[in-house]
Request: fold
Amino acid sequence: MFVVYCAVCDRRTLLGVDEVEWVENLTRGMISVAGHCPRGHDVVILTGDAFTPHEDPRYFGPAPRIWTKPMNKLRAWWRGRFEVSRDLPGSFYRF
Reply:
């Protein structure tokens, strides 16, 4: 079964085995499935490996351990030096 969008009906429907008319291998990794929506309008679906989501080639994964370890030490050092305190100094209190 395929989920198809019929432009004439302006809705998505399921395309079952009975509604499939033609399956054609266009190029490597691209398949065309032609059929009819439940109301009889022609619909075409492009599917196959070319349409499956793949990993982003620009993403190189998490930073290597060699970079994260010194950064964690530096972050801990800054946190120790500039610890945020929520208490007001004595000069701000009204007695």
